[in-house]
Amino acid sequence: MKIKQLSIFLENKKGRLWKALNTLAEGDINIRALSIADTSEFGILRIIIKDPITAKELLEKNNFIVKTIDIVGVELDDTPGGLSNVLKILNDEDINLEYIYAFTHEKTEKAILLLQAENLDLLIDTLNKHEIAIVPPEDIYNL
Questions:
Q1: Most exposed: 22, 27, 31, 49, by fewest CB within 10 Å?
Q2: Model's pTM, two decimal places?
């Protein structure tokens, strides 16, 4: 149920994002999903990849600070209101999300939403209770 995400801390200076992504490319590691958030001093690059352990070791060997974090992926309708419907359920159930990001894939009528919450087990229970399709990690890693 839980997907391993790498969170890579980047100094907010020229070339740092490229260096992290190039390190992965040189290691023949393909990114399945990506999100970046920044402040004036640093950024957090969040990525989903097939082999997070190997990628983490490679990045750390190249002087990056990397954390492995569990997140959850759900499949939703890729239509107006698809995201809003899921977020309303979570809001009504008092689930506090820390962040989300989404992407589309070969199922043109569906999108995948990646979620992180304070209490991931409660999030999973709530998604199951409302019959929101949770995407198995292998499905994400193998896209």
A1: 22
A2: 0.89
pLDDT in the model for residue 40:
80
With contact defined as beta carbons under 8 Å apart, do 76 and 113 qualify?
A: yes
What's the mean pLDDT in 15-33?
A: 95
Residue 70: Cβ within 10 Å count: 13
User: What is the residue range of 106's domain?
Assistant: 71-141
Which of the four pLDDT bands, split at 50, 70 and 90, describes residue 124? Answer: very high
- What is the CATH number for 57? 3.30.2130.10
Identify whether residues 31 and 81 lie together within a single domain.
no
Residues 46 and 82 in one domain: no
96 SS3 class: coil
Q: How many domains does the chain have?
A: 2
